[in-house]
């Protein structure tokens, strides 16, 4: 959905909602209870919902969303929520499906944001795999923001104008983020726009900004596998042949193998890339926009 279509859709909902706003004035201060599956989408919901929403991320800061294990309290939080926003596209498959199966009576609204963004698909070992890491493309994130705004409006019509105004403001901020990222990443010489990361997370980033993924330490979209000795040797060979300047290690994965590859290839391992989680509050990547700015700056400075 383009920004123009979003504005038209939200304007229509505002008109419809205003008719019932007076008759439902007692719900003006109502809070929509929301659970997200990671703190990146939690930040998006906070930006759109503002004070009208109460939002909690199941996965804590610095935790790998692929391998997170929910507890009994998390099941209660999901059951008590008005809506759960997941990333979808298989990111939380290992634990979210199991959690929902254990509570078959749960009727909480489930929204997979990845369904709205036109995902990239890759060939897996036995079948096609959808890449869930769309948040590395701010323009695709805009589509997720549209989905959040429309969902909140449907759940809380009296808050429609707030959700509309907040989403418009944030969409413009994402446009600015994209323009800045593109300009910054274009300062890297074309022959050095190559990336090796801990696991396969930056395909959306590479596609949007004209970079090439030449290798990964974990050769899959999920983090639940290990690199073989053969793959390790081949990766070191790729680093040497393509003169890759650096390996980028993600904040939610173990850096042992990346450090080994970097040492054997005589390059640096940069361990300050945020992928599956924001940083803690007050640190460099404590919001989605700050995370992207931190990552773009780190990548550009390492590859120049």
From TrEMBL:
Cellular compartment(s): Cell envelope
GO cellular component annotations of the record: cell envelope
Any Gene Ontology biological process: cell adhesion
UniProt cross-references to Pfam families, sorted A to Z: ZnuA
One GO MF term: metal ion binding
Xref: InterPro entries: AdhesinB, Bact_metal-bind_prot9, Lipoprotein_PsaA-like, ZnuA-like
Record keywords: Metal-binding, Signal, Transport
Major subcellular location class: other
UniProt key word Transferase: no
Keyword check for tRNA processing: no
PANTHER family: HIGH-AFFINITY ZINC UPTAKE SYSTEM PROTEIN ZNUA-RELATED (PTHR42953), METAL-BINDING PROTEIN HI_0362-RELATED (PTHR42953:SF1)
Protein name: ABC transporter substrate-binding protein
Lineage of producing organism: unclassified sequences, metagenomes, ecological metagenomes
